[in-house]
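pasting for the record
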Amino acid sequence: MDTESLQSSDRRRGRCLDIFLVVSNIFLFVALIAVAAGGVMCVIELRSKIETSRPPVLGNPSKSKGDPLYQTYKMNNFAYLETRSDSLRTGPMFFKSVPYGEGTSVGSNFVFDGERSLLASKQGTYFIYIELNIICSHICSAGVLSVSVGDKLTCKVELPERLTEGPTPVSKRCWTVTQLSNDKLSTRMTVSDTGLKNWTMEPKGSGLGMFLVD
């Protein structure tokens, strides 16, 4: 075989290799777009389920009675508990249900012992969230507050030092989506070893909630 034929063959192989690389890059780019789009769609779908699954705002019976969403949902798959105490100290947290519509904020698919534990009797995917509203009533030291809901969710709040008088509110909401199957969940608070002087919890608006997503 002469030199010119070899060079021609090499050029053809080079062109084929270039085409292969271009096609491979295009395929990879399209695949990445598809994966990203799939992730976005999953997030949108989950958000849609969460928004449509969550009942109306608690504590407004007149709205909940006439709301079609409430009539359909019937509070079976939703539970909300409000914290009982305003103190911040290491130990178990105690909760209470609140009035909602003609009943309470604990749906029929949940079992609440009246103080600490909440059990979801229906297996499925649940959205669990905890809301913490903390306020400095005077001059307050810096510290860290952590609240854990079983082994499913931990919410950590860093509280700043407050050297001047006047109330200083700090709010934090933490959430997760997890599988539950007859899990009994208890909530525990942990504070800095030095304590959280002059910091207190606002029971109104501080609590634990969960509802069935799927």
